[in-house]
Amino acid sequence: MGAPAFVQRHLGPDAADRARMLQVLDVGSLEELVDAAVPAEIRMTEPLALPAALSEDAVQAELAALAALNVPGRAMIGLGYHGTLTPPVIRRGVLENPAWYTAYTPYQPEISQGRLEMLLTFQTMVADLTGLATAGSSLLDEATAVAEAVGVARRQVRKGSVVLVDGGILPQSLAVLQTRALAQDITVVSTDDLVSGLQRHEAFAVVVQTPASDGSLRSVEELTLIAAKAHENGAQVIAAADLLALTLLPAPGEWGADIAVGSTQRFGVPLFYGGPHAGYIAVRAGMERQLPGRLVGVSQDRLGTPAFRLALQTREQHIRREKATSNICTAQVLLAVTAAAYAVYHGPDGLRAIAEQIARNARRLAAAVIAAGFELTSDTFFDTIGVRAEGDAAAIVARARTRGVHLRQVSPDTVGVSVGEDATEADLAAVAEDFGATLGAEEAGATGQPERATAYLTHPVFHSYRSETAMMRYLRALADRDFALDRGMIPLGSCTMKLNPAAAMEPISYPGFANLHPFVPAADARGYAALIHRLEEQLVAVTGYDRVSLQPNAGSQGEFAGLMAVRAYHRSRGEQHRTVCLIPASAHGTNAASAAMAGMDVVVVKTAPDGSIDPDDLAAKVARHADELAVIMITYPSTHGVYEARVADLCALVHDAGGQVYVDGANLNALMGLAQPGRFGADVSHLNLHKTFAIPHGGGGPGVGPVAVRDHLAPFLPGHPVVPDAGPAGSAAVIAAAPWGSAGILPISYAFIALLGPDLRLASETAVLSANYLARRLSERYPILYTGESGFVAHECIVDLRPMTKATGITVDDVAKRLIDHGFHAPTMSFPVAGTLMVEPTESESLAELDRFVTAMLAIADEAQAVASGQWPADDNPLVNAPHTLAEVSGDTWEHPYPRSLAAFPAGDVRGAVSAGAVEKYFPAVARIDQAFGDRNLVCSCPPIEAYASS
Ligand SMILES: *Cc1c(COP(=O)(O)O)cnc(C)c1O
């Protein structure tokens, strides 16, 4: 007997439900549905070449064995990654809590107040510590943050093409910046003498790393001089700064930096073999509208209650496309939440105490090695010392390794020792002994900078939750304000909000995976090496490509990596004039933004009335640009949720003109086991492991966006300056800070694929079945915008609300907000077509939950009709007033022309959203939010504490 196969746990509808759904579609079997929906010419004929599905227990045993092959020891390597202690209340309450990790990006702010509050806290923390006016709500890592900052400076300073970079910059930051510069006509000049560099070059920006990668710190006088010289020359100053050091040292904003960037990893986020970690960016006043990535701001709701929401959303790549400030979409929300929670829990005094202890321990080590006759490379440092050890560096590092401590061999003559929060007295004593020294109480060295004089983290949020009970309840209170997958369906087209299996989640906390530094010797990362290899093989088997790189840490970064590979490929053949990138009008905004970053010229291809790529326009554009054609980027199935029949012809047409074909793999959930982009004509794709392969969305990140290619593009996949084995020999493309990007969450996708094996196909088939079932049921009242030639959609469908809006005045927004009253997260709004909703149920939602959604949508259609017929006024009805808060429906006055019960329990069931798969009535913390008010009155750090009193 035994437990049922995992696939039965993963799929929402069971066999009987599937039969019922097929009946509604009037189709005999799943096979018949798929035969009708998926064009025969691209269908796989053989089963997926994956091992048979494993049980949860077996997968976890395998991953535990792999984790045990890694040797985390005590990581004292530094270089942007530092030992830290994740407070258990935060690990359990956030990182391991589905209420936090299964949330979606907070585009629907009314149901996202908890994570928006924590992100605002993150922004406040970063702004305070850097001494700058406004911080964004996370970037992908420190290296990409440096590159984004250089991009901001370039747009601000429209002269010169040189960026001057500190010789002490982290090697991975330099490499990522150089990769971005390749396609942007930017020259990166690296020098230790930034002041004279500024005299020699007409630079638009200067990047200062503080502390430098060798641990040394410049004096504030020198930093001030660099900033003054830069400003004299019209250049901007970017500080890549360690946030923890800034609890002790003068803030970049105080010595003249315009922008500060870095990592928040050492604020309680595990090393994770390089990621995921939240990068940060902050800018001085007046530059907030240039910030790349997302920005949380304060606004107010319909009832005047202060409320949080994403500010300046018009800047998103969706709207600005190739003119966007950045291609960033998925960022690192869960890790930003973790870092902010760490600051909330420790408070300013706690953070300062941690920093002081680290600095003191570094000084004690310095004194010990000096007493033993060694010299330091710098007398000024915070946490990292360089020890000169003529010819002995390798031996010392090897000795430390046998005692379980990872040091850094900087050169044959220099050892780097970086102290983290986790270093114990025994670790420090062992390190001293490795140098033949004895650790004592004496200290040597100093920061060389005055103590920080300005206060930080003064807001009450950093002082109110300092006991574990208080913190536990605060985390719970915030999570309770949010609607995540642990409450009900999040039917977001293009985003694939499927189950994130607990069995796949648990292994990321195994110490062998969580605590490994990305730059340990290969022999100490054998578990990760095997995991990465196996996952790459799985992805090759699913996609039909030849090679995969797991380095890109979001879909957007996979796009950039893929396009840079195409660019390098053309150049390797002497065809550097191929710079045109064809992109269909319906494409996701990141496509165009990534193409612009890769130095390509975007040419838009029209959409035909049936939603497919207009074949005549495509032929015309290919003919017109044949000589310069670099690549076409298509999404398959299309963003319209349809399997286009002639995709293979399209690939051939582009190939004949000498171009490459990029298939955006965000919709791979419709293809697993059914068709393979790598076989039906594409050359390159990115995948979204945080969509198709069960990595949770985290409220807007982390993600993994692997790039998959056919053989001819494999030499151009990403590499890494510190870990060359991470990519092909001689690779010029470095996309992310860490060699394997967000390595720490790869166990999730590996486990997911291992748990399903060839049944991935059943997952895709069920996703297609569920989408078609919803389309059919909803078509009773709403037109379904596009279907394939067979009349079926793929794994998602576009529900056209425009006729209803025209007839009743009820908008997409009203429907989305009323769905909250019903206990649903709204579908994707107005993408790819304005005035519509794109619904993707995924394979994980039960038939009962699908039916509950249909009931809600039909009830909404009735309510809209009632508005049109005059039963309720256009400006006072359950739709325009949605969502309804508990405070409003239980208030002492109620003056609306519909009853309270209808406001709160629109489906008629007083228990609200109760049904299989969904729990209890969900009330949003705030009513509908006024977006324009917040953009007019931009506030992007924690408001006075009264604002929190809303619930
Ligand atoms: C989600 C998505 C992307 C971007 O992926 P991120 O991981 O958010 O950067 C690109 N294209 C499509 C079609 C998507 O749905």
Automatic annotation (TrEMBL):
Leader sequence residues: none
Lineage: superkingdom: Bacteria
Domain Glycine dehydrogenase C-terminal: 763-884
Swiss-Prot/TrEMBL cofactor(s): pyridoxal 5'-phosphate
Residue ranges constituting the Glycine cleavage system P-protein N-terminal domain according to the UniProt record: 8-433, 466-720
EC number: 1.4.4.2
Molecular function as annotated in GO: glycine dehydrogenase (decarboxylating) activity
UniProt keyword annotation of Nuclease present: no
Catalytic activity: N(6)-[(R)-lipoyl]-L-lysyl-[glycine-cleavage complex H protein] + glycine + H(+) = N(6)-[(R)-S(8)-aminomethyldihydrolipoyl]-L-lysyl-[glycine-cleavage complex H protein] + CO2
Residues the record lists as N6-(pyridoxal phosphate)lysine modifications: K691
Summary of subunit composition and partner proteins: The glycine cleavage system is composed of four proteins: P, T, L and H.
NCBIfam families found in the cross-reference section: gcvP, PRK04366.1
Its biological purpose: The glycine cleavage system catalyzes the degradation of glycine. The P protein binds the alpha-amino group of glycine through its pyridoxal phosphate cofactor; CO(2) is released and the remaining methylamine moiety is then transferred to the lipoamide cofactor of the H protein.
Family under the similarity heading: Belongs to the GcvP family.
Listed name of the protein: Glycine dehydrogenase (decarboxylating)
Organism: Propioniciclava soli
